[in-house]
Design goal:
The complex is a heterodimer of chains A (280) and B (264). In chain A, 71% of the residues lie in helices and 2% in strands. With 280 residues, chain A is mostly helical. In chain A, helix 1 packs across helix 6, helix 4 runs antiparallel to helix 7 and helix 11 crosses helix 12. Chain A is globular. Chain B is α/β, with parallel strands linked by helices and 264 residues long. Chain B folds into two domains: 121 residues, no CATH class; 98 residues, Rossmann fold. In chain B, strand 7 and strand 8 form a beta hairpin. Classes of the chains: A mainly alpha (280), B alpha/beta (264). The interface between A and B is large, with 40 and 45 residues. Strand 1 of chain A pairs antiparallel with strand 4 of chain B, so a sheet runs across the interface.
Amino acid sequence: MSSVAEVTNAPPGPKRMREELALARRDLQRGLGDWRTWLLLGWNDIRQRYQRSRVGQFWITVSMLVNIAALGVIYSYLFRMSMADYLPSLAMGIIVWALIAGMVTEACSVFTSAEHYLRQVPMAKSIFVHRMLVRGLITFAHNIAIVPLLYLVFGIRPGWRIALAPIGLAIVTVNGFWIGLLVGSLCARFRDLPQIVASFMQIAFFVTPVMWKPGQLPPTMWWVVDLNPFASLLALIREPLLGGVPGRSAYVIGFAVMAIGFIVTIPFFARFRGRIIYWL
Amino acid sequence: MPTISLQQVTIEFPIYNARTRSLTGELFRRAVGGRITSNHNRIVLVTALQDINLELGDGDRLGLIGHNGAGKSTLLRVLAGIYEPSSGQARINGSVASLTDITMGMDIESTGYENILLRGVFLGMHGAQVRRLIPDIEEFTELGEFLKLPLRTYSTGMMLRLAFAITTAVIPEILIMDEMIGAGDAAFLTKATARLNQMISQSRIFVIASHDIEIIRRFCNKAALMETGRIVYMGPVEQIISAYRNGESRPGPGGQLTTAAMDT
């Protein structure tokens, strides 16, 4: 049941743009206000995925542990690094990367998977972006349970710097919001885009220092890490977890990506918000 | 005070094929410029509604009549705020409930009680508000202990009972229905009808699309005859019904097909 649905369609021009922006803003406001809906939808997604298995959603944690153990052992041999040096950084990297990559790839289905709801009820479109973020954060919360284990096994004391991790998480999540809105809409219109995004994220995984350390690159290749926004987003959460402080450039890039993302996404969403239903 | 105001509302559906749906196809089309101008570079548009003008206020009960594909369901979706007009203006003020798919948002792995909460939250309610609805739903569905079990253990009839009870638990200002809904066996049907009648009479604006003339007679105080996406007649129920019966509307396929180079 929607409280008020007000739709307008003036001829193209500044007046139309203002109206579209106002409607987009209302969608975003209503989306935030409907937090009960997206919290519940996000939780239910996770619950449904693991409903009838014995350990339930802790499969998330278990499969992540197996992943880390396997990759950690093999790659510490491949890179000839000591396990104590390599494994914690790899583990945190994989956990944080799973969050970032998960948000980007699941952004693709934000609206296509909500077709059933959107065709029945005039809900704010942004609700489904929040739902995707909730799902990602719940998964991340299950994986983060591995971190204390790593501290224990490898004797790491992150100290006060761990307090910077939530700040990094907030920056990543807010970036996830514009990505969900933009990529979700585009993927509703162009149905081959999810495959393109999946391939893109595969490449991003290899050029982002998840499995390797920036120091392993020759100095002439500095730009692979320094200009890669994924590397900055990764560092914003991973460094504090390892007891370090992310470089200032990581914060600058994190906020810059956020600003550019919203500057692009808001007019796009205002223009095409009303069209999404026709694309489903 | 709930109001509905449609001015010159036109709805065009783009029909995408695999080529117009793909980004690679789109980029190729842009790159090639105007050289290939065959029809499959264009998007087919179906005009489902054309120049609809409609003003409804408190106490209006509108019945939509017309052949299949006349645009009735599309119009209902505009009224529910789901489709935004391609051109024209639609203003809908008031809480809207559309009883088109009553099982929407129900989760078969969750229990009956959890589903009540789920749907309540969809309607914008808090936990406490939903809990107040529970005694009424318990009594109406007569599902008893089953409400504590997941929906996958329900029969189709039980599921419909629950869906119906939840959907009709809150009365909206604007009620929209696509054909009359009914649920369950004979005994339950009587109960359901009574509950539905109450819901209809308590809503401020009611719009129903139906092929059943008797339904329109019983619940509506005005009617509109639709044909190929337009409202051809609107007025008192009996007048519109006789216009429909006299075959003044031609049965025809849905909206008009056009091809256009659309930007979206």
